[in-house]
Amino acid sequence: MASSVSKRAIFFVAAALPYALEILTPGHLYQASKWQTAIVAFLAIFIPRFIWLSIIYPFYFSPLRHLPQPKQNSLLFGQMYRILTESIGSPQSQWMREIPNDGLIYYRTLFNTEWLVLTSPKALSDALTTKSYDLIKPPIIVGSLARILGASGILLVENEEHKHQRKNLLPAFQYRHIKNLYPLFWNKARDMISAIDRELSEKKKKSEGSVPPNIVSVDHWTSRATLDIIGLAGIGQSFNAIEDETNELYQSYQTIFAQDRQARILGVLNTFFPFWLVRKLPFPRNYQIVKAQSMLQKMCLDLIGQKRANSAAADKEGSREIVDDIDILGIALKSGGFSDQGIIDQLMTFLAAGHETTATAMTWAMLALCKHPNVHNKLREELRAAKLPNIRDTESQIFAEQIDQIAYLQAVMNEVLRVYTPVPATFRVAQRDTTICSQFVPKGTMVLTSSVGTNHLSTLWGDDCDEFNPERWLDESGRANTSGGAESNYANMTFSHGPRGCIGASFAKGEFACLLAAWVLAYDSVLVDENMKVEKTPGIVSRIKDGLDVKLTSLKA
Ligand code: HEM
C-alpha cells in the first residue's frame, strides 16, 4: 500500500504529542498551548502524507501507473467529474471499448485514489473467483449499507464469516428448492394482473363514456409485486403492497430504502465524516429510518419466534415433516447457523437485494418489448403455444418445468438482463497485496467491474453487441442456450461470478419469468410516449429515471 499511516493514527499522534511534550519538557520549556501543538503536529504529518499519497506516489511510484488509462485527467481529481455525473459503470464502459488493454485499465479519482477496471474474462475470473477473498467490498459502501441492512448480512460480511453464511444459505437458493416457489411467483403475478385490471376498470368508470386512458406505470406495479414476492418467499410474510400500498409495513419498507434527496445528501456526508456522526445529524430521514427499522425488525423477530415455536411444537409431536418451510427464513433457521440478529440482517439483505433488482429487470423488459413489437408478438405466440393456464383464472397454477421450457421466454429474459444490466457495476478494494492477470495490485487499490461494459463488449459479444437480439440465446434447433453465443462465462456479468456472485440468480429468473409471462399474456402494451428519453438512475441498481408508462389493451389470456 502507498502509505500505512492511517488518518486515525495521525489524529492519535497529534492528540498525544502535546501531552508527550509536557512530560518530556518539564518546567514548561515548551511554550505553545496543547491545541497549537496538536494542530501543528497534525499538519506536519498530514500534509506530507497527503502530498505523498495524492501526488508523488500515484504519478511516480505506483506499480499501476503505466497501465492503459483514460486521458484528460484533472490534476487532483482524476476522472472524478465523469464518475459523479454519468451513470454507474458508464465512463468505464467507454474506456473498455476505446482504450487498448490486456485486461486492466487504470484510472484515478478523488485526490488521485487509484482504481482498476477489469476488462477481460481472465481478469474477471482472477478477481472474482481465484482471488475473490483478496478483494473485499469497500468500507465506505459497507458502512453506509450496514446502517440499513445490519452489518452481519451475507452481502456485507467478508472472509470466513462470508464462507460460513454462504454455505448455510445456499440450500435455500438451489434450483431444487427454488422450483417449489414458482406457484407462489405465479400467484403473485396473478394478484398483480387482477389489481391492474381493477385500476383499468376504475379508470373506465371515471372516464364516463369517453375513451379511457388505460395508462399504467410499469415500474410502480412491478415494484409492488416483487416486494410481495420477496416478502413471502424470503420471510414468509407478505407486505400486501399489491393490495394496499398505504399499509404501514409497506410504508416502513419504502422509508428505509427510499433514494430521495436527503438519502443522497447523507450518502455524500458519509464520505467525509464518520458514520456515527452522520446518523446523529438532525435530518428527518435519520429519525424516520430509526422508526421504520424498529418496525421491520420487530416484525422479523416475531416471525422468527413464530417459526421457532412451530418447529418446537412439531418436534414435540414427532411430526417434523409438517413444518415444511419453503421460505428462506425457514431454511436459514433450520441450518442452525445463525443468531436471531444474524437472521434479521439476512432478511433485510434479501429484501434489499431481491426487490428492486427484479422489478427493474421487469421494467426494462417491458421497454424492450414495446420497442421491438416483433419480439413482443413472438413472445406472446410462444407463451400461448406453451398452453400456460389462464392468468385471470383464480384456480390456475403452474410448475417450474412449464415456464422454464419456453425457450423464447428464457431468451428474451437473458437478453434483457444482458443489454440493460440492472446492477451495472460492482466495487472492491484489495485487502492485501495480490495479482490480477499477472499484474501486481497493491493493498488498498480500488477495483471496479463494469458489468454493463462487459455485457456490451464487441470482442465478447460480436459486432451486434449493442442490439437487442434474443435470438442469440437460441441454438439452430430453437433450443435455449445459456451462453448467448459468447465463448466465456465471464462475458455475462449480470449476476457476477464466483463466491460473491448473486446467490439469488435462480430465484430472480423464476420470478422474472412468471411476471413477464403473465403481463405479456394479459395485455398488449405500447409506450405512451414513443419518443421518450430513456435515462438511467445513478444508483447501484440502474432504473429508468422517470419510470415507464405504458398504454394497455387487455387480452383474453
Ligand atoms: C435481476 C435480478 C438480480 C440481479 C441483476 C442481481 C445481481 C447481483 C449481483 C451483480 C451481485 C454481486 C454484487 C457484488 O459483487 O457486489 C449480487 C449479489 C447478491 N444478490 Fe443478487 N441480483 C438479482 C436478484 C437477486 C434476488 C432475487 C436475491 C434474493 C432473493 C438476490 C440476492 C443477492 C445476495 C444475497 C447477494 C450477495 C451474495 C454474496 O455476497 O455472497 N439477488 N446480485
From TrEMBL:
CDD domains, per database record: CYP_FUM15-like
InterPro entries: Cyt_P450, Cyt_P450_CS, Cyt_P450_E_grp-I, Cyt_P450_sf, Cytochrome_P450_monoxygenase
UniProt KW Metal-binding keyword: yes
Spans through the membrane: 38-61
GO terms assigned for molecular function: heme binding; iron ion binding; monooxygenase activity; oxidoreductase activity, acting on paired donors, with incorporation or reduction of molecular oxygen
Chain positions recorded as heme binding sites: C502
Homology family: Belongs to the cytochrome P450 family.
Name recorded for this polypeptide: Cytochrome P450 monooxygenase
Source species of the chain: Aureobasidium uvarum
